[in-house]
Amino acid sequence: MTTGPASDVQQHEPQLCDAALSRVFDILGKRWNGMILGALSGGPVSFSRLSRGVGGISDSMLSDRLGELAREGIVERAVAAGPPIAVTYRLTPAGVALMPALDQLTVWARQHLDAPS
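Given the sequence above, the corresponding structure tokens read:
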């Protein structure tokens, strides 16, 4: 028989992950998506400015991620007639509703994660 702190811990079945939480992490867990959403949180941004704002992402990856976020209803692409034609990206109402949760994750990260080296 084992004694000590480890034996005092009651064993229980792990809680099943909520399907909605799993779904949101399918989206936010993809590299760059959180950073893209953060870059769009201040308002509409052109593709080139967004590319500069999310340092390190290739244009093709940014295009892919924006397309995915648009299909999820989080980001929308707006085309303004030109000349020249101007394309901007912005958060949808669903994307704006996500911002308080991302803000809280940012606060948590600053308090509990080491700064990158």
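The helical segments are 5-8, 19-28, 33-40, 47-53, 59-71, 93-112. Try to locate this feature in the token string yourself.
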